[in-house]
Amino acid sequence: MDAVDTRGLTDQELRHRLQDLGEEPGPISTHTRPLYIQKLRSLQKMAMLQQPIRTSLSAFPGLIMLGLVARVTRNLPYRSQCMSALECFQTFVSAIFYIGKGKRSRPYSHLYEALEYFRGDKTSKV
Hints:
The chain is mainly α and 126 residues long. It folds into two domains: 51 residues; 70 residues, no CATH class. Helix content is 48%, strand content 10%. Strands 1-2 form a two-stranded antiparallel ribbon. Helix 1 runs parallel beside helix 2. GO terms for molecular function: DNA endonuclease activity.
């Protein structure tokens, strides 16, 4: 989706765009219009961030794994509502500490290992 151009947008067009993004706006007036414009921009940005990335890797039979530093991302999905797309991308990229490849069964092996620790069947390697 392209960035929202709100110049010349009628109240009805604003309402339809908000509804297309799952919002149910109330009355649009001169007082509420700036808030709905801001909400539209926020919803549009979220929709852009949630679009799948189509690359030649989509046919890759394995997984691409990324390790992110939580201290850097600091709940990035929530904070992204108040950030530009560039700031979101820069934060995401700066938080990457590991890139690897794996097999499709890898997430399950992590789950089974975590369950073994939880049940006490396995102890951590120190």
